[in-house]
Amino acid sequence: MADLVPLLKAEHLTMRFGGVVANDDITFTLQEMELRCLIGPNGAGKSTFFKTLTGQLVPTSGTIAFRGMPIAGKASHEIARMGIGIKTQVPNVFNGLSVRENIWMAVRRKATPRQQGPAVDAVLQMIRLTDYADSIVATLSHGQRQWVEIGMVLAAEPELILLDEPAAGMTDEETFHTAAIIREINQTRAIVVVEHDMEFIKQIAKRVTVFHQGRVLVEDTVDKVLADSRVRDVYLGKKVAA
Amino acid sequence: MPKHVRLALQAAGILLAIVAIAVVPSVIELFALMQLTLFAAMAVLALSLAFIWGFGGILSFGQTAFFGLGGYAYAIAAVNFQDSTPAILLAIAVPALFAAILGYFIFFGRISDVYLGVITLTVTLILFNSVNSTSGDAYKIGKALLGGFNGMPAVPTFNVPFDPSTVLSPEQSWWTTAGVLLAVFLMLRLLLALPAGRVIVAVRENEVRASLLGYDPRLVKCLTFILGGAIAGLAGALYVNWGAFVSPTIFSLSLSAEIIIWITVGGLGTLLGPIIGCVVIEYIVAYIGSQQLLNSNLVLGGVLVIFVLLLPKGIVPTARDLVLRLMPQNKPKTNGPPVQSAAAPHPAGAE
């Protein structure tokens, strides 16, 4: 039954900022448990798309359905409670709180007080920040703060996880670890990843959607997309006859 | 500092405060006691802004709006009922209700921080001017004559609950006022240690992240604002009890600005700091007022400039940093959430 209704379905989604059309008639479907990568050059509308999905922006027109329920225009916290978690492009963490408190904030929405401690420790272990649990987040490196945010998203146990450039600012080793975590959580959850790093995409991707100038340019398996001449042209900045 | 040492220190501090409050009337003169009672009432007002600004991230330029409403609500009710018990409750309820209405429009209307400052400031001015223009016999609420600019004299002071014939002595008034100060302080400390309090701080830290985790920042900020209004209203009742008098100057902008100075001097983001800042500044102002050499506003401005330049964190955070630096194991103090720590021992210098 669940297979009939897609996890996420956006139809004819358009987002205008004055004269700028950031998202232009996007139709996007994601199945349960799917792992999807979104790629595209800067300004293609990927982050705007994520913002409309999480209620940070209200789309100009179009619909978004999460398991059949309309979510376009709902407040961020309502969408979050329905089970969509996001790691934003610019890290959004609680800078003045400790790592443990950051994770705990996400855990306590669902876990009973007794479960909270072990749940926080499990997430700390997964993001490898157990040794930094009591450090104030503002004192950590950029890469570590990325981890804190990923940890918060995981700790909230959402049904759908959106990751906007999770590997930005990470070393190769950390990127590899991120890819491993993404594959692991994909065993139980659907994930959409925005990323520029092609090596990273190759490590995790199954299906890839390419955004260009606010529209969906191609959507196919990773091999076919990377072989597509239009995609290469987009990334090299050439004009595309789409 | 280990957790149990910190708890023991805190318990010792509370005990010390209780003893100090109890014995003060027997060691100082009546005039000084009255002055301390006033400072304690003002310190409750300081706590109200310390909470919403330092922990809720809401900088209200018009905390005196709630202070004044509390004072007037108390005075009007006390004159009518001739019993302070329901009057005190109204002094909490009326400003809280007003804060709820104002907060609803500010926070659910997603008004930015700058406009929040402008709106709270304007509301204070509106209240000041409205109450100021209530002279004459026409402006009466029940038996209470509002009195316009002259205010309301001879307001009944606190009595023993439900016993209007037994009015509190100055000593008992001090115990009540200082006791309320301690109780509000402890209540806020407790709240901030509870999950609800951590959510308030999290919303201050990052509203976007809080909402993306499923917390409603509008609601959290509105409730914080209401609690701040209620505490300021209670402070208003304590203030009116101290002087048995209330006038529109209770809404004044200079007092609103002074609260901000108390907090800046004492330390934003602490509860103890604003109390200390309030008492120190008010003492200095009162002392300067008793002689003719200097203008107190000039000194107040000077003190603020010195603190912003030399001690931008304020007295209490600076002192805390100093103590922690002098301790052998210099691990920064963190206000951890009440979760069980099963983590491995923290390596030194990890931060």
TrEMBL record, chain A:
Q: Which domain of life is it from?
A: Bacteria
Q: What is this protein called?
A: ATP-binding cassette domain-containing protein
The alphabetized UniProt keywords are: ATP-binding, Nucleotide-binding, Transport
PANTHER family, alphabetically? CONSERVED COMPONENT OF ABC TRANSPORTER FOR NATURAL AMINO ACIDS-RELATED, HIGH-AFFINITY BRANCHED-CHAIN AMINO ACID TRANSPORT ATP-BINDING PROTEIN
The answer, when asked if Transferase is one of the entry's keywords, is: no
> What organism does the record attribute this protein to?
Bradyrhizobium denitrificans
Q: Name one Pfam family in it.
A: ABC_tran
One GO molecular function term? ATP binding
Automatic annotation (TrEMBL), chain B:
Domain of life, per lineage: Bacteria
Region (Disordered) residue ranges read: 332-351
What is the predominant subcellular site recorded for this chain? membrane
Query: Where does this protein reside within or beyond the cell?
Result: Cell membrane
Do you know which CDD domains this protein is assigned to?
TM_PBP1_LivM_like
- Which keywords describe this protein according to UniProt? Cell membrane, Membrane, Transmembrane, Transmembrane helix
Describe its membrane topology: Multi-pass membrane protein
Which InterPro entries is this protein grouped with? ABC_transp_permease, LivM-like
Tell me where the transmembrane regions lie. Answer: 32-53, 65-81, 87-107, 114-131, 174-201, 222-240, 260-286, 298-316
Tell me the protein's name: Branched-chain amino acid ABC transporter permease
Organism, by scientific name, is: Bradyrhizobium denitrificans
